[in-house]
Amino acid sequence: MTERKQTPDLLGELLGGGASGPTPVVAAPPPRDTTGRQPASRPAVAQPAAAAQPAAKEPVSLAPKATIAPRRWEYLVISFQEYRGWRPRYRNGEKIANWEDQPLLHDYLNQLGAEGWELAGASAGRALYGSRDEYQLFCKRASSAA
Q1: Cα-flanking dihedrals φ and ψ of residue 141, to 5°?
Q2: What SS3 class is residue 78?
Q3: Among 24, 65, 29, 30, which residue's Cα sits nearest to residue 46?
Q4: pTM for this prediction
Q5: Which residue in 31, 43, 56, 136 has its CB near the most CB atoms, within 10 A?
Q6: What is the SS3 assignment for 49?
Q7: Domain annotation covers residue 127
């Protein structure tokens, strides 16, 4: 059988027991009582003086935190119809006057972006307002109303 290498007790030194003294033996906890009764007393385990006092912590502020109001949004639904390219025909359910003269889809999106709208979703396949406006874009922007 090989001999075990002897090393200094660093943990014992850090906890205050020192390497020269005997290694403290900690008794196993008593068996758990399953009857529901409280045990009469527990054996005390000696702790080094350094571990007895917790480290100082920063005080916790109990002042209420500033609440941030939820952002409010306004929404826009645009339906497009094909007329020499895809053009906006309905805006929030209202027919756009002279919609045939409106800009094409990509130019109209640039205009909406300049107004602060951002694309939130798109739909295709079913008309919302007109009989042939099968493409809709859903946009949102932060509401200016407080």
Answers
A1: -155, 160
A2: strand
A3: 24
A4: 0.50
A5: 136
A6: helix
A7: yes
Residue with tokens 């912590």: 57
Pairing of strands 135-142, 73-82: antiparallel
Work out whether the CA dihedral 48, 49, 50, 52 comes out positive or negative: positive
Print the domain residue range for 135: 73-142
Q: What is the pLDDT of residues 73-117, one digit of tens each?
A: 999 999 998 889 999 999 998 999 999 999 999 999 999 999 999
DSSP state of 100: G
Question: What tokens appear for 43 in the block?
Answer: 């054996």
In a domain, residue 98? The reply is yes
Q: How many structural domains is the chain composed of? A: 1
The answer to whether position 110 is within a domain reads yes
Residue 110 gets which letter from DSSP?
Answer: H
Asked, for residue 84, whether it belongs to a domain, the answer is yes
